[in-house]
Amino acid sequence: MQQTFTVTGMTCGHCEKSVMRALQHVDPQAKVAIDRTQNRVEVESSQPREVLANAISEEGYAVST
Asked: Which residue from 45, 43, 46 is spatially nearest to 63, judged by alpha carbons?
């Protein structure tokens, strides 16, 4: 399932990698596309939306679902 999140607070490549690692930790098969200039994270995953949002939040980024 393709899901899109608005994620604020990502300012650099390290931020993107942190978000990607967090998402792939909860779903190693997840396909993640990040556009930090648009504050957008697109995830193709079988995990519930709440699980993915929580993984991003736990890295310290604000997530709008």
From this structure: 43
Helix, coil or strand: residue 2: strand
Domains and CATH numbers, the chain: 2-64 (3.30.70.100)
Instruction: Provide the H-helix boundaries in the chain.
Output: 13-26, 49-58
Q: What is the pLDDT of residues 2-58, one digit of tens each?
A: 999 999 999 999 999 999 999 999 999 999 999 999 999 999 999 999 999 999 999
pTM higher than 0.85, yes or no?
yes
Enclosing H/E stretch for 42 = strand 40-44
